Amino acid sequence: MKNICDWNNCFEEGNYKAPKERDNSKNFRLLCLEHVKEFNKKWNYFSGMNDRQIMDFLKSDMIWHKPTQSFSSSDNFFKILWNDALKDEMDKLKFNNEFNHMNKFKFNHNDIKAFSILGVDVGLKWEKVQEKFKKLVKKFHPDMNSGNKKFEDKLKIITLAYTQLKNTYREKIDN
Known about the structure:
By secondary structure, this protein is mainly α.
């Protein structure tokens, strides 16, 4: 079904929307290309408004026509952002405490590479390293992968990385 241009005595196809009123309503009419161009040339959203009304509209437009909220409002964007930032800081403190025991440790290049191979953070508690190693052994064990040589080689590398870290942690704890 073709839409006919909503302009006086025009029977062209109306494919372009043009507002019927100035109030930002969803009401529109369909015009052909020629008449929508003519309409747009003459269109003045602010016609019929006095200077005060125009200024009020422009001010309101700067905040997307929504009322401002006090900072204490529970759904205030900046309050939520601030609380999230504080939460992040608390998480960082918790994270730092998790690794505080490692301040005396200094890891060499091989240790850092071993942490990377195991896919854990440098300086993670030994118990966590062991947990990760056990998961990786289960995942890459040849019995779990139909004896695939690729997985066997990967498991060898993981075991070497674990052994590297085990020796490093043993040295650090014994000293």
